[in-house]
Amino acid sequence: MKKGAFRKRQWQMLLLTMFCYMFFYTGRHNFGWAAKSMALELHVSFEMIGWVSFSMLIGYAIGQLINGNLSDRFSPRYMIPLGGILSIASNFAISFAHSFWLILILWALNGYFQSMAWAPGSRLISNWWGKEERGKAFGFYTMAAGFSSVITFLLSVVLLQQGWEWRWLFRVPVLFLLLGIIVFFLFARSKPSDIGFDDLYEETSKANRISWKERYRVVFSNRKFMIACIAMGFESMARYGLVFWVPIHYLGKDWSNNPHYLWVTVLVPLGMAIGALTFGNISDTIFKSNRPASIRFGISMSALISLIIFFLPAGNIGVIAILLLSAGFFVYGPQANFWPMSPELLGEQFVGTGVGIMNMTAYVFAALGEPLLGRVIDVTHNTSYIFLVIAILCVCCAITISFVRKTKLKKINAPLDYVALESKP
Predict the structure, then answer these.
(1) Looking at the whole model, is its pTM more than 0.85?
(2) CB–CB of 26/177 below 8 Å?
(3) Are 244 and 396 a contacting pair, CB within 8 Å?
(4) Which residues contact 278 (CB under 8 A, 6 or more apart)?
(5) Within 10 Å of residue 359's Cβ, how many Cβ atoms?
(6) Distance (Å, rounded) from C-alpha 417 to C-alpha 327?
(7) Is 300 exposed, middle or buried (0-12, 13-18, 19+ CB in 10 A)?
């Protein structure tokens, strides 16, 4: 294997996967910007809108459980574009719907289709990147997801300021997703051996020999990994609390006369993107691959910042901008540290299944949080309470991840090539 040629391909595959995923959120984070106008047109409460968001997240969670397992068997190069095309079709169908229940069903299906990207992409990255650089690679990948929110927020703000109705939010942004999946399909390859290089791990080629039932058994029986999944569930609830409800919080102001309130919300996903890249690197360097410690630090900072936003009187737009940027940075940055825990706790054969189950747990929690936050707003008539709830969720994440210590994998002579062993404190 020529090292220079392989290194070039390694980065190429990471960048292609990032480029494609950078547009996936245009097919699901557009909903928060349409929610207020949709609620008014359909004459439903914010709690009911929360249930629509719930349906997508549950569809996404079910899809993660299924597609994560499938990504250990089938090619990410085909799974990701297929999911993207079906998601685009769902968005266009919603843009012509006039029934609340039809929108709810279509949005749930969209959640399933959207789930066909993340775990397969993680599988591809794990195939191309070694253990010593995996934190960095997943940091870049998670950063792409953060920038996907930035792109979606920017497109949505522009469309709203141009006076376009909410239905166009489901038509225009997803055209960028179409571009992304075309480029990915043409140039990406699922593993090194697909283009003549040696695979990094022998287990990668062995993954197809393991039954789907055995993959589920191994993942669900790993206690530490399941605790990490629960911790990520709390993190995801907090993250979606910001992504979905912050636009509603600031759209509640007279944003037509104060457009800076609308634009400042873009700083939330921008902070998320920067945080993902930063935490992907510092977990490998400052925290010496101790993912739980890195997660605990970041999510605790997020809790503190959310409390400051909650108690801070409205007014200074500069202060609000800094706080929203920081909130996004610390609530999403730690997520980049969760994904490497799949190969580190489970082994190379189970990366896709592990990522799928972890993401499934995250979105089940996030789904439960949406109607809860909608209910809080309906009861208090004050959208600022979302920041208090987010702070509480961040504290729950920090406590839960503390039960997972740094782990390392050791090669053993057993039917499964790797097992997770606790490192000494």
Answers:
(1) no
(2) yes
(3) no
(4) 139, 329, 333
(5) 28
(6) 40
(7) middle
Cα–Cα distance measured from residue 119 to residue 281, given in angstroms and rounded to the nearest whole number: 21
Residue 185: pLDDT band by 50, 70, 90 thresholds?
Answer: very high
Residues 6+ apart with CB under 8 A from 345: 222, 224, 225, 228, 354, 407, 420
Contact 198, 192 (CB under 8 A): yes
Using an 8 Å Cβ cutoff, are 330 and 305 in contact? Answer: yes
Q: What is the pLDDT of residues 38-54, one digit of tens each?
A: 988 988 887 788 788 88
Q: CB–CB of 299/332 below 8 Å?
A: no
What are the structure tokens assigned to 26, written together?
Answer: 């245009």
Three-state DSSP at 422 gives strand
For residues 320 and 202, the model is more confident at: 320
Torsion on CA atoms 322, 325, 326, 327, rounded to nearest 10: 120
Alpha helices in 252-290 (DSSP H): 259-264, 267-282
Tokens 């999911």 locate to: 83
Chain CA centroid to CA 14, Å: 17
Question: How far apart, in Å, do the first and last CA atoms of the chain sit?
Answer: 39
Residue 406 has pLDDT above 80, yes or no: no
CB 122 within 8 A of CB 351: yes
